[in-house]
Every structure is written in C-alpha cells, then in structure tokens.
C-alpha cells in the first residue's frame, strides 16, 4: 500500500496543469481553475485502487489538494455498479470480493464532487489473459535473491510490472515494485529479477505479475517524456502527460494479474493457482 500511495501521489503531481494569465519563474501560463484529479487501477484480482484530489495552480506550490466531498463509483459499460470505499480523504478502494469484475466488459471510474463537479475515465478493456507458468525463487547470498518468471505471451505489445509484498510472522512489511515496467516478448519466455533486500526478518513473500491494458504504455511513455522535457533547459514546451479523464485530469487503467506466495530461503519452483 505504501508504494501504491507514493505512486499515486507522484502521478497526481504530474497532472497539476498549466483563464488567468500569470508568470512563474519567468514562464507564462494559463490556469483554467481547480479540477478533479483522478488516478486509478482496476483488476478482477485486486478490485479498485484509486485516488482523487483537486488540481492546484502552478503558482501555488503549497495549495491543498485534499477534497472531502468526493464519491467514487466503479462503472461497468458506462453504468455505475458499485461505490468505492474511502481509506482517507484521498485514497479509495473496492475489494474484488465486493463486486465481480468481468474481463469481457469495459470498466471506468466516476468521481462526483459537490464543489468541483464530475470527472470520469474512458472505459477500458482488459488485456488478453495472463499465462504465467511458474516462478522460480533462488538465493544468491544473504542479500541477493533471484526471481524468474516463466510465461507465455500472445501479444507482441504487452506491458507488465512485478510486485512483491514481504511478510514476517504474518505481518506485511512492505509492498515494492520489483524490476521495471517491461515490454514482454511474444513467445514462451522468462523475465529475471534480482532483488537486493534485507529479508532476514521476513519468512515469506507475495509475488505478483501484473499485465496492463495498452494505454498504460502510452501513459508511462508520456511521464518519461514529460520529465525529460522539464529538465531540458533548451526545451521551451513541456511534454504533456497523457490522460483519459473527462471533466478533470488523470489516468485510469485496467490490468490482470497472477500471483504466488513464496517461502523465503526455500529455493524451489512455485506454480500460480
């Protein structure tokens, strides 16, 4: 959850967009006023993970993004089907057990605010089924551990992330993205990750492979291009971050996942259920 929240906050900042002419550090910009900023992910395995904030003017570096009047809905083929639960005034969730998400339908999120109106994402389809064959866990030494994911991929442009949540005595200690955001080859193949962690006080780990809809690649690429253009002193126009939200800013995407629970220090092959 910590890495999820951090990722969301980073993404939210990217959508602080540039009616009023102003000047900040020598640059002119137009700010259309505060709008809803919605970031979220939808999967049949994990349900909904999302955040909703208000955008703030680039001139106001200390603007408060928190909104306390938002209701967030999961929509199926354009119709509201379930209300998400609030974790705090920013983060929202809907457990997969609370609503059955059908991979043959399109899903989106709709945020309703009394002060800022309504914002909703473009309906998103799910990627083709994930075919994770096995996960091999090996120990190099006390600090380095190797996870090798074996899978069959049908499409040449599928993009995945790998997650790991470590446990000790039944308690979850951290949730980290391991490896990069990866384009998978089309074929039976494998992806190897070296983890460098102090896991002496951990006894097990929940390892997950997430496969995202195609829009995720467009979004991730735009984030990289945005960062490069912001740090380039000779680039006058900052590259825009891709969004798929009407009535606000942000990005919502679907994904599917497969996972296994591994026992740390037990070198073996794990088969996903």
- The overall pLDDT, averaged over residues, is 81
Rounded Rg:
20 Å
What is the helix/strand order? Answer: HEEEEEEEEEEEEEEEEHEEE
Structural class based on helices, strands and sheet pairing: mainly beta
Gross morphology: globular
pLDDT < 50 stretches: 1-7, 16-26
Give the end-to-end Cα distance, rounded to a whole number of Å. 23 Å
- The strand line-up of the biggest sheet is 7-8-4-3-18-16-13-14
The main pleated sheet reads as:
8 strands, mixed
| Count of DSSP strands | 19
Q: Tell me roughly what share of residues is in helical segments.
A: 10-25%
Helical stretch tally: 2
What percent strand? over 45%
Description:
- The protein is mainly beta.
- Helix content is 11%, strand content 51%.
- It has 2 helices and 19 strands.
- It has an 8-stranded mixed β-sheet with strand order 7-8-4-3-18-16-13-14, covered by helices on one side. Strands 6-5-9-10-17 form a 5-stranded antiparallel β-sheet, with no helix packed on it. The protein has a 4-stranded antiparallel β-sheet with strand order 15-12-11-19, with no helix packed on it.
- A hairpin with a 2-residue loop joins strand 1 (20-24) and strand 2 (27-31).
- Mean pLDDT is 81; it is low at 1-7 and 16-26.
């Amino acid at each position: 959850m910590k890495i999820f929240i951090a990722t969301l906050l980073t993404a939210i900042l990217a959508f602080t967009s540039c009616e009023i002419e102003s000047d900040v550090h020598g640059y002119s910009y137009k700010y259309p006023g505060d709008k809803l900023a919605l970031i979220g992910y939808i999967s049949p395995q994990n349900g909904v993970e999302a955040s909703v904030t208000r955008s703030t003017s680039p001139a106001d570096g200390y603007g408060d993004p928190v909104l306390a009047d938002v209701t967030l809905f999961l929509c199926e083929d354009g119709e509201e089907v379930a209300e998400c639960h609030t974790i705090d005034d920013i983060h929202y969730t809907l457990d997969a057990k609370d609503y059955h998400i059908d991979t043959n339908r399109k899903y989106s999120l709709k945020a309703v605010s009394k002060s800022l109106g309504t914002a909703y994402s473009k309906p998103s389809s799910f990627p083709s089924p994930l075919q994770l064959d096995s996960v091999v866990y090996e120990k190099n030494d006390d600090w380095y551990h190797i996870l090798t994911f074996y899978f069959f991929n049908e499409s040449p442009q599928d993009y995945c992330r790998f997650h790991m949540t470590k446990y000790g005595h039944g308690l979850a200690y951290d949730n980290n993205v391991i490896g990069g955001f990866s384009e998978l080859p089309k074929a039976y193949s494998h992806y190897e990750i070296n983890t460098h962690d102090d896991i002496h006080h951990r006894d097990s780990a929940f390892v997950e492979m997430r496969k995202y809809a195609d829009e995720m690649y467009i979004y991730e690429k735009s984030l990289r291009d945005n960062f490069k253009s912001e740090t380039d002193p000779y680039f006058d126009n900052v590259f825009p971050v891709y969004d798929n939200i009407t009535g606000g800013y942000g990005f919502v995407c679907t994904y599917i996942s497969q996972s296994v629970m591994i026992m740390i220090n037990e070198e073996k092959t794990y088969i996903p259920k």
